[in-house]
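Continued from yesterday's entry.
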Amino acid sequence: MKIQKAAVIGAGVMGAAIAAQLANAGIPVLLLDIVLPDQQDRNFLAKGGIQRALKARPAAFMDPARAALITPGNLEDDLKKLKDADWIVEAIIEKLDAKRDLWARVETVAKKTAIISSNSSGIPMHLQIQGRGEDFRRRFVGAHFFNPPRYLHLLEVIPTPSTDPEIVKTFSEFAQTTLGKGVVVANDVPGFVANRIGVYGIVRAMQHMDRAGLTPAQVDQLTGPVLGRANSATFRTADLSGLDIIYHVANDLGRATPDDEDFTLTPAFRTLVEEKKMLGDKTGSGFYKKTKGADGKTKILNLNLETFEYEDQGKVKVAAVDAVKGRPLAERVKALYAAEGPEGDFLRGVMNDGFWYAAKMAGNVSDRLQDIDNALKWGFGWEQGPFETMDTLGVQGVIRNLEAEGRTLPPLLAAMKDSGRDAFYHGGETVTPAGEPTPYHAPYFILADLKKDATTVVKKRAGASVLDLGDGVLLVEWHAKMNALGEDQLRAVQDAHKLVQDLGYAGLVLGNQGENFSAGANLPLILAQAQAEEWDELDDMIKQFQQVTTSLRFSPHPTVAAPFGLTLGGGAEFTLHADHVVASAELYMGLVEVGVGLIPGGGGTKEMLLRFTDQQQPGQQLGAALLPAVQRAFELIGTAKVSTSALEARNLGFLRDTDTVAMNKNHVLQDAKRQVLALAPGYVQPTPRQDIPVMGDAAIAAIKSALYGMHQGGYVTDYDLVVSEQLARVLSGGTGNNRTAKVSEQHLLDLEREAFLTLLGKKGTQQRIDHMLKTGKPLRN
């Protein structure tokens, strides 16, 4: 069973976004919806869904060209086309009768091998397929995406008692590998996993807020990043989701669950939905409201739940949050759980509710604890799931607190109390919902978390390590803040090269499991050295940086980079020099040095010129015919263009056609390891190029002419001109050449280093770096 073609029924927000994610993965999609009687275009709704997906922000498509893979249609004229689909998923209105009617029609046309799915967030799957034939029911499995499907990792796969286990296995593998989703197998119960526990947490947080006398803004400070949860925290998440959605889900869950599972909404929340019709972002106001200030800047107003008026409360300060800022997550969680006063009472109430309910749901919503943890992490943006958080605090201590509150322990926690075990995960083991030890099965090839797939640390530095991935492959793993590049990171790459040669490894992978691959160079160090006028030291540092980045290409063994997330500046330069790249589909890659008044100095400028001139036809690599390649490199670097996906990174030239894109970020390391092993047999060490064509003064003149016009038009600042002229000089191969010449890679690297140091010595660059460090924003001086 291979899924090579798909169909989505329902072109609303969710259906169109699911179709877009399928197109992102390269799967042709048929998108169907009803025919509107007052519209001449019978495919009006499906076409509208595609257009909304193209305009969506954040973008639903990784590359707008992928929209061509979606074919619009309608359920009257095109139902028969479903016979070609290997997977059919519906995303229509949340009404049981409508879904049953649709499945009756689909059963008559779908091929006998097609997998059939519903994206319903609440209607039980087994109820939808009552009356369908045995073969249809065997191939039916719930597929609940979270919105937006491109960015939220979670996909709940929900079998019914009739679903063939092979269908679950096949579909789950497709969802993980091809669609890039994090699959949690959920039981067919109300709310499934993430919404059942997540909405319970939101409702209970509202109740505890009232008791503690806190405001929504204070609660969002307490339940956001400080607790290892999403920036949107509790009430901003509610606004984003739609208060009406939470209202209906909470009411439905309240009717469908036992009395001790309290989904009672607060009076204020009911007033917002039932009377005020303030439903969050979809109506422009909810717990928060955006408005324009007198200065034209957007301001966020906070809702006063007593008056239902919006107030400008400025930056809300919360003492418990301020007290733990800058500390590691484990320390923050422990301190917040023990905090005093109303803030501490609120947090303990919310956290204990979450712990109790997650334990109660073990074996109910899912049969594995890790699935519950992953559902909350992947669906709601938590860093730790509830069981992982209890491990941080110590399970026995949590149990004592729950008993002190007079709670009856769920069977899982009662079993943990009896066993004396203080962690759900330990030494490659976890426990069953009954509290019995069981092996932990990692969902992916994950290294950093020792309760999952452990690896051997071969050499460790404070900011980087070299690890043994097995099968003769080493991993260079950076683990500094934002993976900024300094001495530890460079030395670790050198360590790995030496270990490969000395110990006979096959090759190495450059990757890590932080939030981002690398945000670039260590700017505070560079600025401090420039202000101290340590020019010899800086020159040596840049030489070393160039030697290490280019060593990824010019070593006797294969190297594979595995970038993801932010891959900026020096992080991009390392990636550009690897023999092969396995990139996460969500790759935000760019050479952004001009934003701090510099140019790429680690071979990035050289590499983009080389790549673009190589793309010219051999007969065009002369004279003025080279100018488009030079201009393309200049524009890419000079505008600090950052890709919005790996697909765009390929279009921009950061990735080659031969490089690999992995839809699932958690697969990049294992895929990179495979690539090293594929390259290793018969690998021949490359040699630096000596034949890169350059234009000399002619290129500089052309670029300066264009810059003059942009400066006159106000598009570039005075200091932009200074930086741009240094960039033009490198891309031209240097001044003094009045005709096309050929230069070496080292010649271009030397020009890069010279330009980098020249700019670093200027006041304008130092001002830009200082401003970036203080504000996080570029200075236009």
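--- second protein ---
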Amino acid sequence: MSMRFQARRKRRFQRRAGITLYFGGALAALSANAWAQGEPAVAASAPASASSAVPAASAAPAAPTAAGDTANNAANTSTTPTTTLAPIVVVGTTPLLGIGTPLTQVPANVQTVHAADIQRQGRQTLTDYLATNLPSVNIADAQGNPYQMNLTYRGFTASPLLGTPQGLSVFVDGVRVNEPFGDVVNWDLLPQQAIDTIQIIPGSNPTYGFNTLGGALSITTKNGKDNPGGEAEISGGSWGRKAAQIEQGGTIGQNLDYYFTANAANDNGWAEQNESRIRQVFGKLRYTDADTTLSLSAGGADNDLHGTQTIPRSFLGNPKQPYTYPDQNQNTVGYLTLSGDHYFNDHVELSGNAYYRHFRNTNTSSNVNEDYGSVEDDGDVDTLQATNERSTVTTDSYGASLQLTLLGKLGGMENQFIAGMAVDAADSSFTQSSQDAAFTASRATIGIGDYEQQTYAKTHNTNYGIYLSDTLSLTPHWSLTLAGRYNWAEATIGDASGVQPQLDGHHTFSRFNPAVGINWNPTPALTAYATYNEGMRSPTAIELACADPAAPCSLPNDFISDPPLQPVISKTYEVGARGKIGSATTWSAAAYSTTLDNDIQFISSNGAGSSQGFFQNVGRTRRQGVELAGQTKYGPVTVTGSYSYVDATYQSSWTESSPSNSSADADGNITVKPGDHIPGIPATTVKLRLDYAATAKWRIGTNLTWRGSVYAQGDENNQDVNGRISGYLLIDMDTAYQVTKQLQVFASVTNLLDKRYASFGALGQNFFTGPNNTFNGANPVNEQFVGPGAPRGFWVGLRYAWK
């Protein structure tokens, strides 16, 4: 086999699913931790360097040739020895496409999800799938819409909600999709049908750049060569949900391939005011030859999402009712990405990308006037019941990355060296307007007069990064990884209205973040590792413009000139192991500790139920815990299970205004002390997945998810009389029957036992304590507000595939 053909095979398969197994010439995409899949587990290979993966592949037959042809070839020639080599699993350790690193040399508990796994369970949203199947992943319903969940991983959050401390970075084909204005992640904009693989990389991996405090999600989309043919799908069921999607992939000649998908969904929502309308489209065109791959992808979304907010516990007799409404988010996005890689020879590979992304969010929120009944400066009593807030964020983001990979030897030892650089820039425009309003009997707001503009700001962000990574095979059983990244960030905030010059500000942040890891592979069935790494998150524009305790602002309005904030620094230690027992069982275990210095929190000025407040560095916080997981197969039954424990605590003392907390002092303040638990993060989660192949055409799957209790926001000192929000057990089921080779019927049930539960909570004041929950602003009551979970739901659908 020619060396040029080897390079082509490397590029074509190694990053296709994030992981590739070469075994005697046969290729099979597998999971880094196979227990995360509904597939039979396969152990990692014997120790091998990054550069040894290709010769291993080339020593086998060149292609999946028919057995008869192989036998004839052997008979017609002299006795040619056949060599069966150990499998080599390769994963990606940087955002950009590259050669990848053998799993045996990756010092982290990487988890991988494939497209087939997501499709098998028929989940409505990506966050729901991740929370139900992966260790240390949970979701919380803070906004009352299934497409706008807060996702936490090891106690770190990726959320669409402005003001939520963000700690995870999310990439799609090497492009970071955390929105520059607030670092939020809009899960509804990700093209779920186009996803080929998802890798969750834990810890503060510096090569992934800003905001990778607790981990990174790296998403790779499909292409036409690996996903030929097409399928169409329709489904419907509970709450008026109707969905349709289509996808098509294929090749044009020898060098071009294409992929396209589109989907639409309408959902009335299980509650009274949480309907959703989803529209997504994605396409990709690729050119490949022996040395080069060029890919041009584009996509967009136009979504309309309504939420119910959290509701006070006194409302739980009817959990479908909203507290106030309307609350609406209209998200639109369009993006274009050009990426590619080129092999100069078998030891030198260059990859890169360039992108442009246009995002727009229009938010309309109904709010209680918390100053109702107070005496104004002129002596009048404030009798305004409510306000409507309307904000618009428009962002144009663009950037480019370049990465060089060198394979060779250092001191006689196999070595992989990676050097990369990235620049990301964004221009954002933010406007916010307010309207006086009154409540109807159903707690809807009716505007009084016109909207009046409160803020018009423009921001510019520029982030630069230079990173290095080196993996050295010290011996056949030991490997060492050294990495680091220098980050430099600039944020400029300017008043665009001409009436708020105090808004103007310019901030810069920079730091070098190192990482070191070591792997030990005593046998082909066991890998152990230890690692230390550091990460950085610079304050966002919204945090920098809302950081003055003396002048609290609303989220996301009323920006002012504020004291500077310090960047958040994360330091992570992790030890772990993974391996295989027999031919059908895999397992993994990890223990970790991540400490944040200068953590940033949104400090409410009138309790957690208030949107008024400011951002503040609160000192040190820590997330530490363990992960245990495994998968085994018994004939037609595959069992996957995991246990996660997260101890998330404050490590510094600070004061917060939380007058709705029963332990607050006369001024409404509470004192948070070291050891107090961070709200919203469950300590314990247990997950079990059963897959049963009843017949060759019929399969049945079941998920059991236990999530422990959490503290409510506003109860940062863990002393409120309401106590924790209870844990819960959910049981979901899914099934599919292959009617013909092309036609499949599928169905799913969520919350099979119709369990009433809540995944999120906050302390606040209930202003609706009159008859039939009518407005009683003069006598609000302190209560614990919760985000109720959805009741039992059932859906059925048809999927037709063609080649």
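The helical segments are 3-13, 53-58, 67-76, 115-121, 126-133, 541-544. The longest strand covers residues 445-473. Will compare against the first tomorrow.
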